[in-house]
Amino acid sequence: MTSVVIVVIGEEIAAQLGVPEISAFLWMIPFGVLGLAIYEAVSQWAIRLKSFSVVARTSATRGIVQSGTQLIAGLAGVGAFGLLLGQLFGQWTGAGSLLRNAIRKSTGVLRSATLASIIGASRRHAKFLRFTSPSVIFNVAGRDTPPLILAYFFGGSVAGLFALGERVLMIPVTLIAKSASQVFVSSAAGFHREGRLSTEVEQLFERMLRLGLAPAIILAISAPVLFAFVFGDEWAESGQYVRWLSPWLLFVFVSFALAPVVFVLERQKAAMWFQGLLALGRIGSLVVGGIIGDALLAVAMFGVVSGLMWAIYLVWLLVVSGVRMTRISRFFGKSLVSSLFFVMPVGFSQLIGCLLYT
Fold first, then answer.
1. 58, 97 in Cβ contact below 8 A?
2. Pick from 207, 208, 305: which is nearest to 247 by CA?
3. In this structure, what DSSP letter does residue 176 have?
4. Over 76-135, what HEC string results?
5. Distance in angstroms (rounded) separating the CA atoms of residues 132 and 135
6. Over pLDDT 70: what percentage of the chain?
7. Residues 131-159: pLDDT tens digits?
8. What is residue 346's predicted lDDT score, i.e. its pLDDT?
9. Helix (H, G, I), strand (E, B) or coil at 245
10. Backbone region of residue 294 per phi and psi (left: phi > 0; alpha: psi in -120 to 50; beta: other values)
11. What is the CA 87 to chain-centroid distance, rounded?
């Protein structure tokens, strides 16, 4: 289906987005979709089998292959094609080893499966198809369209600065929060049956909040300076964008780990509505900023809307799990106090730097 769209109207889509130069690379999208689909399917089954070491190895390999390919291509002067090629290689890496692991460990299940049992399971878990699939589509729309919208209103340079900042922010979500979610999803149903889901959710929430709060505050204070130091002065503007995205980072970091609650409690419909409203709010904020003509304002509105909505979603996840609001407030206060130990030196150094500069 993706291939047909690319062949028929690919060039027109690129032209309408204001980046006709990407039309030469659109042929890579169907291959990326296929590789990512295979990897996601077999990785979910590996998690079901609790093959966490295999998932961890393939996840690390994917990151190394993607970043390594992009780095080598960049040093070779390949340009944009190298970035896309690395992304494509990363989407395919690990699918083969996970598939072999699934077949080796699931021979009995595969042999015993019948058409009737498959149809019965599909009916029992129809909410995954009816609500989770649209939810994922909304999530992808809200996550992947912002660089395209920014490119349309402000050009490829602003879109690139935003994309770099967002990619850096997604590193802890991908490496830490996703791993925590994978471990939690393998046991969450058991916790629910045993009546201790709220206790486990509380503990995971507190751990993730402690991990994410201090880095989010530090980025809000010093992101422009950090990006200029790490990537060069020309990328300082990307740090300005990250400053406004830091609240979103915190709440999505914690929420991602707790996401399995939705499936255990069968609240997929509510999650679908959230993702739809989130996509609408994120895209709408960028469009408003684009019409006004201020890139930083567009990103700031995007960050505020995203952070606020993810904060509401996080509280909802905790409440439906049985966690009381008083305990949520207490956990947040304790984490804020403990994070000051790391934040205060950064804040003082930032203040001294500003005074010396002025």
1. yes
2. 305
3. I
4. CCCCHHHHHHHHHHHHHCCHHHHHHHHHHHCHHHHHHCCHHHHHHHHHHCHHHHHHHHHH
5. 5
6. 95
7. 888 888 888 888 888 888 888 888 888 88
8. 61
9. helix
10. beta
11. 15
